[in-house]
Amino acid sequence: MKIYDWYNGPYPARVRIALAEKGLLPGIEFVSVNLWKGEHKQPAFLALNYSGTLPLLELDDGTLIAECTAITQYLDTLDGHPTLTGKTPTEQGLIHMMTKRAEIEFMDAVSVYFHHATPGLGPEVELYQNAEWGNRMGEKAIRGMRYFDGLLKTRPFVAGDEFSMADIAVLGGMIFAGLVDLPVPEECEALLAWHARVNERPSVQAWRAMVAQPQ
Q1: Is the peptide bond before 55 cis (omega within 30 degrees of 0)?
Q2: Nearest Cα residue to 167 out of 77, 89, 90, 72
Q3: Rounded Cα gap, residues 112 and 177, in angstroms
Q4: What is the pLDDT of residues 10-63, one digit of tens each?
């Protein structure tokens, strides 16, 4: 299998952490697509992924799977023993719900803030920017942080009692917020404590090691 991504991208981080959780990192070929040069928006990559987003999974038979949730679902069920996406219909529904909320209320909001309220990926990539909209999305991301802080006061992980794809999505939001210097409010103690715990997971440590030594 191949993964097209960029070594320290926050969305690629989600799939790399999922790969580490499943013990699949050694069998993956990573293909770098340079975000800062806008390679993900060039015709060669758009021919593979119409959306022009990273990461992208290519199977050995040439099948292409985009979107973090879809890739994680595929990887998690390869061995017949899902650990990240739920074992029962109820678990699966809750995990997918919370993953979507993590994207809409937090991670994607940080992304809009980055692309519109900061220099983003630079003028060659950011062909249109709306700073007012970007700042509003920055505020939305902070509201999202407070939402997840409230949830984590009542449960150990985002979707319940077990670490899941939803936690990886919120972690992706935290990674992105750190990259763009969007601070977590100090009063979000439950979110910060959860963040400290998940940072100690071997999968997250493996991702950080890859970021420190990009291939």
Answers
A1: yes
A2: 72
A3: 11
A4: 999 999 999 999 999 999 999 999 999 999 999 999 999 999 999 999 999 999
Identify the pLDDT of residue 214: 72
Global pTM value? 0.96
Q: Which domains does the chain have, with CATH numbers?
A: 2-82+206-212 (3.40.30.10), 89-201 (1.20.1050.10)
